[in-house]
Amino acid sequence: MEYVTAVPHPRTEAAGPARAGRRSLAVALLSGALGAAVALLATRQRWSEGTATVAGGSFPLTARGSDVTGVPAALAIVGLAALVAVFAVRRAGRLAVSALLALSGLGIVTAALVGASDSSALDEKAAQASGDTSATVASFSHTAWPYVAAVGGLLILLAGLLALRYGRLWPAMSGRYERDGAPRPRRAAAPVDPDRPEDIWKALDRGEDPTGADPA
């Protein structure tokens, strides 16, 4: 007679977190890299436009995202660096880098939304064109690119939140040295079997004497 037990198998219990770690890692890498690329691309596009009036009439003015604010581009680079650094640190360091990644995304979103209604860059161009420091731009409007930059920030923010939640399940870069700086002990070479030519060749490649004789 067979009995059915409700106790889960250890392998089944371990498979759940491992699967969640792999999925979250893939999503975080994709969203973080894509978000940084989108934010950098958006800052190079036209964010706002308007007209300036001078003695000879009026002419159009435009301002790119980098003219309005440099925050999204700078934080996109910081976020991309933090995304890579997540795998170089562990425990408390990983939490700190993950928080920096999330804050970079949040900062991009905030700066992009504020920049969508900022006319200071166009006002400065209007003052330069008219020669009047008090001149301001007229018919101010903005494009959709500030919101595209905000979407990029949201993707970076998502990567940071995933790193905070699942980062402990992600792999870390392997190092040659332990934490105390001491090199890891090398494995002792297997004894050479004189009847196996491949063992003799491997010993010669390592600079060892396959005969085991002491040097004179």
From TrEMBL:
InterPro entries: Trp_biosyn_TM_oprn/chp, Trp_synth-assoc_CHP
Biased composition (Basic and acidic residues): 193-209
Keyword terms: Membrane, Transmembrane, Transmembrane helix
Region: Disordered, residue numbers: 178-216
A Pfam short name: Trp_oprn_chp
Keyword Signal: no
Transmembrane segments: 25-43, 68-88, 95-116, 144-164
Entry keyword annotation includes Transit peptide: no
Name of this chain's protein: TIGR02234 family membrane protein
Native source organism of the sequence: Streptomyces lasalocidi (Streptomyces lasaliensis)
